[in-house]
Amino acid sequence: PDGRVTQGLDYLPDARPLLLVGNHQTFAPDLALLIRGILKQKNILIRGLAHPFVFSGFQGTEDSTSGTGDQSESAESGQRGGAGIFSSYGAVPVTPRNMYRLLDNGEVVLLYPGGVREAYKNKGEEYKLIWRN
User: Whole-model pTM above 0.85?
Assistant: First the structure.
């Protein structure tokens, strides 16, 4: 609240809903590390907003915020391997409606606004948060 930069999960606010915004590092290994670390240390499951491509081929992916139903059933069947992993950690396709519903339900939501573009930077390009219009 006072603008200071803090490190460590002890500073993660207890108030909900909570929106976490970040920028991907090269090839996006940060996503798994962040979700697992917070789940293990704080017992909080972060609900990630993932690019719809991750879920392509699944039924029920539009506005799927409950973590149950068609999306998770399809993910468990092993189709498109990576999507099953994302779904098992509570990720849903990034849409304005999904984000609103998750926050309205008091969830902790993780958003990388630059998405894949941030994860695959050009040679010599600086790390920066990319906001799409």
Answer: no
